[in-house]
Design a protein that fits this description.
Blueprint (H helix, E strand, L loop, with lengths): L36 H19 L14 H16 L4 H25 L13 H15 L2 H16 L3 H31 L1 H16 L2 H12 L3 H26 L2 H9 L4 H12 L1 H21 L8 H10 L3 H35 L1 H27 L1 H4 L6 H20 L1 H24 L3 H16 L1 H17 L2 H31 L1 H16 L2 H12 L3 H25 L3 H9 L4 H9 L4 H21 L7 H11 L4 H30 L1
Helix pairs in contact: 1-19, 2-29, 3-6, 3-9, 4-5, 4-15, 5-14, 6-7, 6-9, 6-12, 7-9, 8-9, 8-29, 9-12, 10-11, 12-14, 13-14, 13-23, 14-17, 14-23, 17-23, 18-21, 19-20, 19-29, 20-29, 21-22, 21-24, 21-27, 21-29, 22-24, 23-24, 24-27, 25-26, 27-29, 28-29
């Protein structure tokens, strides 16, 4: 018997006439270990720090406050040329000037009705008693009696503050802008809801328009429409239209297809299907679109005071510039009251049809005669306010407003005397611990190094397209000539966003895990989102003075509600069975949060970061009014100093570029996380 010994590493030869039992197996290919995005981000940041240590202070593109680049001078020359040829250039004669005339006529008409003396009269055509009556009646007609009482109380309170005319100017501009915006927005929204092709075309434009901070709309519009109420209204129309278009399209697309198909099978024409099926079934959502447009318009009208728009915004701006906290607080309170009233009226209007349906015919039986009687009473109030001075001019001299301003000044003095140690310590900790080091890293690094880091982070977090977008934005930012100011704004925005996300995760997880906490906190968060950005600056100006930290804290408080709500909804969406399985496996509460709920809410966290960045950027820029400097100051200075107009316009463009870059990178990152 012969024994065959195999050599290691050699296959055994088959016996003569036999096939091997199995085919030879090739070795498995070597697996490529995929590098995580976190490791790549860390590598980019470490490389940045190393190069910063070697190249600090070189090629930073710093520009003094009074210095101009060739682009800024070209903008100045263009502004001067347009001003010189405004009444001779056919484009202005037959297009821009005509648009301005139409809008100005509309605004003047509404102001003559409710706020400004008109027709040789010392008072408007409808005085305070008539306006309060109309506000109460309309609120009752579209909502309910509780909202009507709120509207009457709110409008009366604005008069007691001594701000009746300023409030009516703000209301006139807001209503005029919303009226014009809805004339265009609703048809465009319906078109986008019916046509997939148009929806794909219009969506990027809506995203872009909603990404831009309110400041950005002002400078270019003054180039074509001058400063004043007309330009403010046009800017407000452009800013308020996108929410209405988007929500209208969503409402049309949300109608069940089976309902539309049933209408088609019954022989309904496209027009009949739209007017009898799609629009009636979308009524509630359409009213919410009107609500969002009104809120956007009110926010824009107050900021448009920078281009000489009348109203409460002008009072706030003047008070902020003179550091008069009491006056700013009083006017800011009036803006908040108006925002709450308008929000509650339109929100109640969206729910009224549901209330009527639940109450049955009894609701309509009593409501119609009462509405007729209320209409007659309102007509009497309007007649009295048109005829008699006592019903036209708000009585009193604004004693409530003086008391509010005095109380605000007293509180400010007390806070500065007793809380300065605490507030200064908090301010210094954030400024010296986070803001200054990061700002130094951005502003003292070579511009090409920061640009390369932004592009690399965009590509790693958002993918190739986000990297390309970052490349374009960085190149254009360099071209604006305000690179250093843009980096200062970027530092404040990133630091504020980090703090927003810390608050968002803490309170969002708390709300997502507890229904009671959600019910307690959500109304406050909803109310906070109603207030225009201006209002947030006032209390923190009292606490921290006119510094960039004031703008950062205001930005945190302004952006936190939306981040908290998004994260709370993401945590709540985690399947309860998954949480119960983790609990039964012995996981602690901390482990469930960090190992289950937050990882499964990554898409919500990324979306919250996106929205937080956009909200923070808009607020940090507004903070230019209270010492934030950088791009916000450049824009404000461009409105007030003619020689800096070009630089202000370039700063507005830089703000747009930062917003677009932030938005595209974070949106792409959210899509990659949810994929």
């Amino acid at each position: 018997m012969t024994v065959v010994v195999e050599k290691p590493g050699q296959p055994q030869k088959p016996e003569h006439g036999r096939q091997p039992d199995t085919a030879p197996v090739s070795p498995p290919p070597a697996r490529r270990r995929k590098v995580s995005r976190g490791v790549l981000v860390a590598a980019v940041l470490v490389g940045w720090l190393l190069l910063f240590a070697l190249l600090r202070g070189r090629q930073t593109l710093a520009l003094a406050a009074a210095d101009l680049t060739d682009l800024h001078r070209w903008f100045n020359d263009a502004n001067d040329s347009i001003g010189a040829n405004r009444n001779s250039n056919p484009l202005f004669l037959y297009f821009f000037n005509e648009i301005r005339l139409v809008i100005d006529t509309l605004v003047t008409f509404v102001q003559d009705l409710v706020s400004q003396p008109s027709g040789g009269r010392p008072v408007p055509r409808i005085g305070w008693l008539g306006v309060v009556g109309i506000a109460g009646y309309v609120s009752w007609a579209v909502g309910n009696w509780r909202v009507a009482l709120l509207a009457v109380a709110g409008f009366t309170f604005m008069g007691l503050q001594g701000l009746w005319q300023e409030s009516m100017d703000t209301l006139a501009l807001t209503l005029s802008a919303v009226f014009v915006a809805l004339l265009f927005a609703i048809p465009l929204g319906v078109w986008a809801g019916l046509s997939d092709r148009f929806h794909r075309i219009v969506t990027p434009f809506l995203d872009f328009m909603q990404t831009m901070p309110t400041f950005v709309y002002l400078a270019p519009l003054t180039l074509f429409f001058l400063i004043g109420g007309a330009s403010a209204t046009i800017a407000t129309v452009i800013y308020a239209a996108p929410p209405a278009i988007r929500i209208t399209a969503h409402a049309i697309r949300s109608v069940p297809k089976a309902t539309v198909e049933a209408a088609d099978s019954l022989g309904a024409t496209p027009r009949q299907a739209l007017t009898k099926v799609l629009l009636p079934m979308s009524k509630r959502t359409l009213v919410m679109g009107v609500n969002q447009s009104i809120m956007a318009a009110l926010a824009m009208v107050t900021i448009a005071a920078l281009i000489d728009a009348p109203g409460l915004g002008k009072t706030v701006v003047q008070a902020l510039q003179s550091l008069d906290v009491g006056t700013a607080f009083n006017a800011g309170l009036a803006i908040v009251v108006m925002a709450i009233v308008l929000d509650r009226v339109t929100t109640a209007a969206s729910a009224r049809e549901e209330t009527a349906r639940r109450s049955g015919g009894r609701f309509l039986t009593w409501r119609r005669p009462l509405l007729a009687a209320g209409g007659a009473g309102t007509a009497v109030l309007v007649y009295l306010s048109h005829t008699y001075v006592w019903a036209a001019e708000f009585p009193g001299e604004g004693g409530v407003g003086r008391s509010v301003a005095s109380a605000a000044d007293t509180a400010t003095t007390w806070a500065q005397d007793n809380l300065s140690a605490l507030t200064n310590a908090f301010r210094d900790a954030i400024t010296n611990g986070l803001l200054n080091p990061f700002q130094t890293l951005l502003t003292d690094s070579p511009w090409w190094l920061v640009g390369a880091v932004l592009i690399a982070l965009g590509a790693v977090l958002g993918g190739p397209r986000a990297g390309i977008t970052a490349t374009v934005c960085v190149g254009l930012l360099v071209g604006t000539g305000v690179w250093s100011d843009a980096m200062t704004t970027l530092a404040s925005t990133v630091v504020a966003t980090v703090l927003v996300m810390a608050l968002g995760v803490a309170f969002g997880v708390w709300m997502g895990r507890s229904g009671l906490v959600d019910r307690l906190l959500r109304p406050t968060l909803d109310a906070a989102q109603v207030m225009p950005p201006f209002v947030y600056l006032v209390p923190f100006l009292a606490l921290f003075g006119a510094t960039r930290f004031t703008a950062i804290v205001a930005a945190i408080v302004y952006a936190a509600p939306v981040a908290i709500k998004i994260i709370a909804d993401g945590v709540r969406a985690v399947p309860q069975t998954t949480v119960e399985a983790a609990t039964s496996a012995g996981c602690s509460t901390w482990q469930i949060i960090t190992k289950v709920q937050l990882p499964m809410s990554r898409s919500a966290l990324t979306l919250a970061t996106n929205q937080g960045l956009i909200y923070v950027l808009s607020m940090v820029v507004v903070g230019g009014l209270v010492g934030a400097g950088a791009l916000g100051y450049d824009v404000v200075a461009g409105f007030s100093q003619g020689q800096l107009y070009g630089k202000g316009l370039a700063a507005g463009l830089a703000i747009v570029l930062l917003g677009v870059m932030f938005d595209r990178i974070t949106q792409a990152a959210a899509r990659r996380v949810s994929a």
